[in-house]
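in:
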């Protein structure tokens, strides 16, 4: 009975320690997923230790540290989190911009296909209609632009 109690207490201590640690995930060169409580270059933070997290959602100013970089060349956890959030915001902005460019290229291509005659506006605002060969070349260019902006031919 005492052995079972000792095992239960030790398991409880291990579990409580494990639930209070940051967890990082990374994929190695062989595409194997690894988890650790220590940061490794290329890893992402998937669980944050709430006891070390900031309680305020407002940004706080940090005094510069004059004692150099942390041991082992690692960044402090908050700096990594801020950098990861910034990287996510950049990826989101890039994806949004690419989506807009794809939509614009798709619209240009669809208009060129639907139009019977294609024209360019001259320097004085007059319309200069393209020949059939020029219109075909314009449509091909619009298709190439759409493929480049969208990554591939979108299925409709």
């Amino acid at each position: 009975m005492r052995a079972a109690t000792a095992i239960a207490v030790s398991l409880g201590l291990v579990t409580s320690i494990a639930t209070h640690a940051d967890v990082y995930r990374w994929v190695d060169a062989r595409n194997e997923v690894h988890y650790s409580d220590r940061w490794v270059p290329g890893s992402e933070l998937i669980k944050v230790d709430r006891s070390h997290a900031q309680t305020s959602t407002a940004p706080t100013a940090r005094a510069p540290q004059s004692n150099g970089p942390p041991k082992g060349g690692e960044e402090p956890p908050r700096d990594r989190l801020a950098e990861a959030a910034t990287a996510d915001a950049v990826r989101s902005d890039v994806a949004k911009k690419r989506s807009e460019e794809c939509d614009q290229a798709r619209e240009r291509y669809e208009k060129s296909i639907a139009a019977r005659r294609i024209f360019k506006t001259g320097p004085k605002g007059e319309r200069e209609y393209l020949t059939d060969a020029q219109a075909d070349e314009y449509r091909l260019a619009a298709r190439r632009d759409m493929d480049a902006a969208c990554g591939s031919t979108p299925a409709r």
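note: The longest strand covers residues 23-27.
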